[in-house]
Amino acid sequence: MTHKLFSSWTLRSVTLRNRICVAPMCQYSTPDGVAGDWHMVHLGSRAVGGAGLVMVEAAAISPEGRISPRDLGIWTDAQARALAPIVAFMKTQGTVTAIQIAHAGRKASTRPPFLGGDPIAPDAEGGWEPLGPSALPFHHSHTVPHAMDAQNLEKVRRDFVAAARRALAAGFEVLELHMAHGYLLHSFLSPISNQRTDDYGGSLENRMRLPLEITAAVRAVWPEDLPLWVRISATDWVRGGWDLEQSVVLAKALKDRGVDVIDCSSGGMTPDAVIPAGPGFQTPFASAIRQEVGMPTVAVGLITEAMQAEHILVTEQADAVALARELLRNPYWPLHAARELGVDIAWPVQYDRAKARP
Ligand SMILES: Cc1cc2nc3c(=O)[nH]c(=O)nc-3n(C[C@H](O)[C@H](O)[C@H](O)COP(=O)(O)O)c2cc1C
Predict the structure, then answer these.
(1) Would you say the C-alpha torsion 115, 117, 123, 127 has a positive or negative sign?
(2) Pocket-testing residue among 21, 179, 325, ligand 1, by greatest number of atoms within 8 A of Cβ
(3) Confidence band, pLDDT 50/70/90 cuts, at residue 31
(4) What is the pLDDT of residues 246-268, one digit of tens each?
(5) Is 321 helix (H, G, I), strand (E, B) or coil?
(6) φ, ψ (nearest 5 deg) of residue 266
(7) The pLDDT of residue 112 is above 60
(8) Residues 6+ away with beta carbon under 8 Å from 92
(9) In the 8-state DSSP scheme, what is residue 191?
(10) Cα separation, 123 vs 9, whole angstroms
C-alpha cells in the first residue's frame, strides 16, 4: 500500500525518500560549538530510524549568535569539519542532510533552562552582549540588547553567507535560515522587537529588509541545484505583533529570492503570548501559506501520530511534516509509522564504512 507520508519528495536536485523530517533541536551539548560523539549518535540514529530528512539543530553563525554557551556553531572551518563525518554517515543511511543556521539576537546569552534556570547577565558565565534591532529586551530578566548599527548589520550578513559556505563544505544538501522563535531575523520582522526608525524598521517592507538581504546573499552562494528552506514563526500570537498576513507577504518575497520551502512554526517573540498548543496547532499556517503563496510548506508542532501526519499531507495542508519531541523520544518513529500504515519500505541496512568518509 502506498501512502503520501512515504512518497518521495523532490526539491531541485534533492529527493527525500519520505515526507518525515527531523525538526531542528538544540542539543546544548558542545563546549565550543564543535559537534562531537553526541551529535554522531543523536543525528545518526535518526537517520537510521528512517526519516526522509534530518535537520541539524540551530548552528550559530557567530559566537555571539549562540543562545547558550553550549550551542552548536558554524562560525569556524573546524566546526564545519567536525560536522562532515556526521553528514557523510547520515547519507549512507539514505536520509537527506540539512542544517539550520541561526543568530539568537536578543535571546542570546541565556542558559538553557534545564541547566539551572534563569537567563544570565553578559558578565556572568558564558554570557555576551546580545544584539537586536532595538534596545528592547525579550523579558525584563534578559539583558538589554545592543541596537544594531550599520557595522553590526554588515557583519551579520557576512556571517550568514560564511556559514552557508561552511554548511556546503560539510556536505549538507539542504540549508535552512532561522527566521523564527524570536531570534535575530524574527526580531527584525516583528514590530514588538523592532522599533527602528531607519530603513530596517517601521513599515513591513523595512522590517523584512535584513532577512531578505540575507536570504538573497545566501541564495547567491548556496548552489542552484540545492534547496533553501526558511523557518518562520507565522504569528507572534500577540495582537499588534507579527501575524499570518505578514507571513504571507514575507513568504512571497522569499519565494521570489529563490527560497524553496517555508517551514511553518510560530511564537517565541514574547513571553506574554498565549499559545493554543494542541495536536497540529500550527498546521493551519502551513496550509494558508501553501495555498496563498503557492509554495511547498512543512508543518510542525505536536504531530505525533502516523495517521495524523498522513491526514495533513493527504488534505494538502503541507508537503511534509517535521517532528521534534516525538522523534526525540523515538528515533525509529518513521519505521513504526511505516508498519502502522502497512507500507513496505526498503531500508539501507548495510553500512559501507568507506562511504562514511567525507
Ligand atoms: C529540545 C528542543 C530543541 C529545539 N531546538 C530548535 C532549534 O534549534 N531550532 C528550531 O527552529 N526549533 C527548535 N525547536 C523547536 C522544534 O523544532 C519544534 O518546532 C517544536 O518542538 C514543535 O514540534 P514538536 O511538537 O514535534 O516537538 C526545539 C525543540 C526542542 C524540544
Answers:
(1) positive
(2) 325
(3) confident
(4) 999 999 999 999 999 999 999 99
(5) strand
(6) -160, 165
(7) no
(8) 348, 351, 352, 355, 356
(9) T
(10) 47
The single-letter code of the amino acid at 158 is R
**Cβ count near 220 (within 10 Å):** 12
Cβ 59 vs Cβ 26: under 8 Å: no
- Residue given cell 500577540 in the structure block: 238
Residue bearing cell 540551530: 58
- Give the Å distance between the CA of 25 and the centre of ligand 1: 5
User: Does the complex come out with an ipTM higher than 0.90?
Assistant: yes
Number of H helices, E strands in the chain: 10, 12
Q: What angle do CA 330, 335, 337 make, to 5 degrees?
A: 85
Distances (CA, A) of 55 to 22, 39, 96, 143: 6, 12, 9, 30
DSSP track, 90-154: HHHTTPEEEEEEE--GGG-S---GGGTSS---TTSTT----EESSS--SSTTSPPPEEP-HHHHH
Cα 228 from chain centroid (whole Å): 11
- Cell numbers 535537520 correspond to 55
Q: Residue 356: what pLDDT? A: 73
CB 86 within 8 A of CB 55: no
For the annotated catalytic residues, the residue numbers are 183
- Kindly state the helix (H) or strand (E) to which residue 174 belongs, with its residue range: strand 174-179
**Cα–ligand 1 centroid distance for 324 (angstroms):** 5
- Between strands 297-300 and 174-179, the pairing is unpaired
Measured in angstroms, how far is the CA atom of residue 4 from the centroid of ligand 1?
A: 24
Domains of the chain by range and CATH? 4-347 (3.20.20.70)
Nearest alpha-carbon partner for 20 in 29, 33, 30, 7: 7
Angle between helices 244-256 and 283-293 (to 10 degrees): 50
Cα separations in angstroms, 45 against 8, 50, 87: 21, 9, 12
| Closest to 310 measured CA to CA, from 15, 50, 18 | 18
